[in-house]
Amino acid sequence: MSKAILEVENLKKYFPITAGVFNRKVADVKAVDDISFFVNEGETLGIVGESGCGKSTTGRMLMRLIEPTEGKISFNGKEITKLSDYEMRKLRKDMQMVFQDPFASLNPRHSVEQILEEPLIVHGIGDKATRKKQVREMLEVVGLSGYHAKRYPHQFSGGQRQRIGIARALMTRPKLIIADEPVSALDVSIQAQVLNLLEDLQKEFGLTYIFIAHDLGVIKHISDRVGVMYLGRMVELTTAKQLYDKPLHPYTEALLSSVPIPDPEIAVTQGVLSGDIPNPADPPNGCAFHTRCSKCMEICKQERPLLQEIEDGHMVACHLYEKEIAN
Ligand code: SF4
């Protein structure tokens, strides 16, 4: 039976909005508003949603790069939400992040060797000679060559830079990798190569992934299970197969109804989803999606639906299914 490597309970991140000469707090942007989920060892959990849905904030909170407002994050059975900076730095050996823009995330003044060696130095792993050997080995693992070690980030293409970003994340042999839009800045042909590389590395190193993206096609390709976020909330969570074969939440249905348009942001502009995303500083009462939902009922405007298991392992937050649970 699979074991949960990461468990998230009631996680929230509110960013205060201040105004006036005294900078009084007047409201909160509820970037992440009470989400709970788990990730099993060795699986890939995709998190998908439109821009501003809170998926990247969630990823950064899991790494404690952003402090949660409330909630609990447990890694390997140990709560990490309250760990000190020092303890968290030690833990990052096992939890690493791959970022969207590989160029911005690599220090342009450091050679690839320095970039890849740094996590080993930070965590006190190996001596100089061993570290150099490990750098060269890792470059080969991600499809580059040992001689690339002496080069600088600007000497590589976008796809190669993302390979360097992935290599850096792997240097400490982590158990969990949080990849935040890791292929969205790349050409489509290069995206496929990087996705295949991530899949190969998962098998080779027994990795667990949280894969954050707005592209439904990319998420389908790589994920075992998928969580759909809307306005800071998780609205549907199930296996990739169930989600793409039989989506239950009206928002997921709307996103997927445009098969030739697998990018939610394009889908929105092309009218597959009507209406604008509400202001996250002033989200609608009840179901956050009710202002755009063609199946909206009276109760949807009053009560927030909870994420509940509708079918085996298929979680949905929608009043349409509450009768089914009650029966
Ligand atoms: Fe639509 Fe109501 Fe379900 Fe929200 S709760 S998705 S408004 S039917």
Automatic annotation (TrEMBL):
<dbReference type="InterPro" id="IPR013563">
    <property type="entry name" value="Oligopep_ABC_C"/>
</dbReference>
<dbReference type="GO" id="GO:0015833">
    <property type="term" value="P:peptide transport"/>
</dbReference>
<dbReference type="Pfam" id="PF08352">
    <property type="entry name" value="oligo_HPY"/>
</dbReference>
<dbReference type="InterPro" id="IPR050319">
    <property type="entry name" value="ABC_transp_ATP-bind"/>
</dbReference>
<dbReference type="InterPro" id="IPR027417">
    <property type="entry name" value="P-loop_NTPase"/>
</dbReference>
<dbReference type="InterPro" id="IPR003593">
    <property type="entry name" value="AAA+_ATPase"/>
</dbReference>
<feature type="domain" description="ABC transporter">
    <location>
        <begin position="6"/>
        <end position="256"/>
    </location>
</feature>
<dbReference type="Pfam" id="PF00005">
    <property type="entry name" value="ABC_tran"/>
</dbReference>
<protein>
    <submittedName>
        <fullName>Dipeptide/oligopeptide/nickel ABC transporter ATP-binding protein</fullName>
    </submittedName>
</protein>
<dbReference type="GO" id="GO:0055085">
    <property type="term" value="P:transmembrane transport"/>
</dbReference>
<comment type="similarity">
    <text>Belongs to the ABC transporter superfamily.</text>
</comment>
<keyword id="KW-0067">ATP-binding</keyword>
<dbReference type="GO" id="GO:0005524">
    <property type="term" value="F:ATP binding"/>
</dbReference>
<dbReference type="GO" id="GO:0016887">
    <property type="term" value="F:ATP hydrolysis activity"/>
</dbReference>
<keyword id="KW-0813">Transport</keyword>
<keyword id="KW-0547">Nucleotide-binding</keyword>
<dbReference type="InterPro" id="IPR003439">
    <property type="entry name" value="ABC_transporter-like_ATP-bd"/>
</dbReference>
<dbReference type="InterPro" id="IPR017871">
    <property type="entry name" value="ABC_transporter-like_CS"/>
</dbReference>
